[in-house]
């Protein structure tokens, strides 16, 4: 409702009504205060918000200007929330066995090796042709189609940042000799 009133009100700046926000500005400055009585009518209410209760406008002005009167309101964050999933590797098993990711959602997929031996993560189909960043203390191996596999040292961590571009069920495994480790990532 306040936003509708604000949008319906002609745009006016503090300088339009003769108010100063800078201490060294020779123009007159004013301060306004809200009284506790909801029916209050104050003589020092500026005509910035005609039709709005005089007691409400200072609070609305603080909200609109983010407390910085005379400065432009701060921009809304444009960063998209990042989905974060960690797969624990322990006793030659991936836990959880089934991971759910979301299509076109920025994702950080972590694999933490708690074992005392090397493990790998091979998920070729999931990372086929996808832009990604690999961090941590593992050793990624790339091929012509993208990330082939990542070797994770004992007590190591690998972090893959990407945005899943396709939906489906993608299996992955550890291809170290003698390791029978498989799990699934579902992108919906």
Report what the structure shows:
The protein is mainly beta and 188 residues long. The protein has two domains: 73 residues, no CATH class; 105 residues, Cupredoxins -  blue copper proteins (Immunoglobulin-like, Sandwich). Helix content is 11%, strand content 32%. The protein is built from three helices and eleven strands. The strands form three sheets. The protein has a five-stranded mixed β-sheet with strand order 2-1-4-9-6, with no helix packed on it. Strand 1 and strand 2 form a beta hairpin. The longest helix has 9 residues. The N terminus is likely disordered.
Primary descriptors:
single chain; 188 residues; mainly beta; Immunoglobulin-like; 2 domains; disordered N terminus
Ordered list of secondary-structure elements with their pairings:
Layout: H1 2-8, H2 57-65, E1 83-89, E2 94-95, E3 98-101, E4 107-113, E5 119-121, H3 124-127, E6 132-136, E7 139-143, E8 146-152, E9 157-162, E10 168-174, E11 181-187
Parallel strand pairs: 1-4, 3-11
Antiparallel strand pairs: 1-2, 4-9, 5-8, 6-9, 7-8, 10-11
């Amino acid at each position: 409702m306040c936003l509708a009133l604000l949008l319906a009100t002609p745009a006016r700046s503090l300088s339009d009504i003769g108010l100063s926000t800078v201490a060294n500005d020779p123009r007159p400055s004013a301060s306004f205060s809200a009284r506790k009585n909801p029916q209050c009518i104050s003589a020092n209410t500026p005509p910035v918000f005609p039709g709005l209760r005089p007691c409400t406008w200072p609070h609305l002005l603080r909200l609109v200007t983010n407390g910085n009167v005379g400065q432009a309101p701060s921009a809304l964050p444009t960063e998209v929330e990042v989905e974060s999933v960690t797969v624990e590797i322990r006793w030659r098993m991936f836990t959880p066995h089934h991971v759910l990711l979301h299509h076109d959602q920025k994702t950080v997929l972590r694999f933490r090796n708690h074992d005392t031996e090397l493990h790998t993560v091979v998920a070729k189909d999931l990372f086929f042709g996808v832009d990604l960043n690999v961090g941590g203390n593992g050793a990624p191996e790339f091929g012509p189609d993208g990330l082939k596999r990542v070797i994770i040292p004992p007590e190591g961590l690998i972090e893959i940042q990407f945005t899943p571009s396709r939906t489906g069920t993608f299996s992955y495994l550890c291809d170290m000799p003698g390791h029978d480790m498989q799990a699934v990532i579902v992108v919906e």
